[in-house]
Amino acid sequence: MSFKSILAVATDQAHLTETVTQAASIASALDAHVDVLCIGVDRTQTGYYYAGMNAAVLQETLHQAREAASGMAASAKKQLDSSGMRWGVIEAVCQLADVARFVASHSRFADLTVVPRPYGDDRGIELEPVVEGALFEGQSPVIVLPDGGSELKLPEKIAIGWNESAEALRAVRSALPMLSAAQSAHIVVIDPPKHGPTRSDPGGQLSQFLARHGVKVEIDVLSKTMPRVSDVMRRHVTDINADMVVMGAYGHSRFREAILGGATRNMLETCEVPVFMAH
After folding, report:
1. pLDDT at residue 49 is higher than 90
2. pTM
3. Exposed, middle or buried: residue 188 (CB in 10 Å: 0-12, 13-18, 19+)?
4. Is beta strand 275-278 parallel, antiparallel or unpaired with respect to 142-145?
5. How far apart are the first and last CA of the chain?
6. Using CB atoms within 10 A of its CB, is residue 255 exposed (0-12), middle (13-18) or buried (19+)?
């Protein structure tokens, strides 16, 4: 398995350049094709109108969405034009309520989707459904970028958040091309169960699985010395100077929408390195 189709998703000009730069950097390292999906978000919601809303206002919001998509597409093409790599730019307009499904329709045919961090003061509300659409409905592994991170290439040291869940194992399998190329991978187990088949060797089976793929593995067993598991994980990532975190994406269904769970959200809000997730 290898990553040959990488999708970068942009909904805001402010985060476009960094998202495209990072996606192109990893695509170049993997000799992959990169597509940039530029979405102008129409923030009107059909069926919900306030006093004074008329056709002119609706037309103006649609025009703004088209202008935003067109501007981002032009910037992405200019940025990639001299890169010498294989690329494409997709320009589209989508209603806010349909963002997750629209992103999923593209990410399902990508080996990897690259998106900016969905949480922060300067982030639009559409970024969380962008992540959710790629992960849950599109079934694509996703790299969520931190703010102002260094240029993303193949990571040298990777921290794996391991709790024996199906989501964590899916993330590890999806990340194998990067894990195999890394200098080392740390399987991080926080407060392993005291009872069960792996109590005497937490992370051992995963270590064996990865070693057979040529991954250089270490196992780090930690105690939960902070209120949240994500805080312990984030501190350890800093301590070992990891370049990337691999973890499962956890969520639940609400009215057919995937809502990211607390541990996942906390990591995305605070982690200072790229987070590779799969569900």
Report:
1. no
2. 0.91
3. buried
4. antiparallel
5. 18
6. exposed
